[in-house]
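Example 4.3 (complexes with small molecules)
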Amino acid sequence: MKAVVVRPPKVGVSIEELKEPEPEPNKVKIRILNTGICGTDREIVNGKLITARPPNGRDYLILGHEAIGVVEESCCGFKKGEIVMPVNRRGCGHCLNCQIGRPDFCETGEFVEAGISGLDGFMREYYYDDPKWLVRVPYEIKDFAVMAQPLSDLEKSLEEILNVQKRVPIWTCDDGTYNCRKALVIGTGPVGILISLLLKTYGFEVWITNRRELNDMERTIAEEVGLEFYNSANGYDGLKEKVGRFDLIFDASNAFTYIASQVLPLLNYNGILGLFGFPQSGQLSLSYAELQSLIFRSNVIVGLVNGQKPHFEMAMVHLASWKTMWPKTVKAMITKEVPIEDEKEVKEVIMNKLPSEIKVKIVWSK
Ligand code: NAP
Ligand code: BGC
Ligand code: ZN
Ligand code: ZN
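Answer. The structure with NAP bound is encoded below.
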């Protein structure tokens, strides 16, 4: 069977013919339908993700952590023909958080991540999986359901942000929502857009930024959803003058090392900065005065990573509701579909982000 293979930290990607997996008892046989390409995949194939590694004893890793597939044979509570999405991070087996299904908070660091770290991913025709890692995909959202995986990371991140903000005696507004809170999202890739939709769903006023103008797709989304945009090519001073400070700043770029000192002064009293994007280079340096300000304003900086099964479930619900709330947006987000048969194009879209791309989907079967 075909599979997309990487050898981290080597730069590059290949499509190889691998042996079909052997049947395993009490595991569900899955035929992959679609896989999505994430910024993290590009960081892996460009040798920039420090956590990327093959399974133990191997020199290669099958790429891909965003996937939906179809159940090939009824097994273990799943019926033939059902569409499923696999959870990508799997627990270490020892720590309590992993034992209760929350390897996003693994305490040992010995978890594995499909297609990223120590476990084969989903860019292959078939594989077998333990039913406990499978989430049902409503048929109505199957065309764009690959986005439920990155959205699961963001569902978890927002849950964590709201939990952290419970430290403030009152952070909700006089209608019980967050509609008096201002959020700034840095980066307009799939992650930046998905977190913006989620924040809007919770009532936040959302500003998105990039150091360039929005492209047509991004503009369509911003207009339909009601996102404000600021072009940060000349820094963020103009934004502070225009909008004031933000209660939440969410980094969805991969360049935070270069913008930290520009955006930190925008954080409001009691505000929270969520670091989600993986910077690819650079060094972060903050002056004593910047640190004093963070302390004086009771700010929090939090690293946000990985969603688990409950977050995948929430992601399915939100995608289904956004299909009705923001139909143009959901349609606009899948900017390209590439059939796996077109190997040259598949390798190209994995290595390089296309101009005007939001989410690219590789189609393995229909
Ligand atoms: P992406 O498509 O590469 O998006 C990055 C976005 O940031 C793009 O819109 C890019 O603009 C923009 N950008 C780059 N430099 C910028 C700057 N200086 N100022 C403002 N915007 C800037 O990647 P993605 O798939 O959305 O993922 C975003 C990041 O999140 C990646 O680092 C990925 O690895 C990470 N991630 C983390 C987790 C987690 O659990 N923590 C989960 C998923 C992804 P252009 O379009 O012009 O390049
Ligand atoms: C994945 C997350 C994963 C993270 C760190 C992201 O691209 O979507 O689920 O935990 O990378 O490897
Ligand atoms: Zn990802
Ligand atoms: Zn663990």
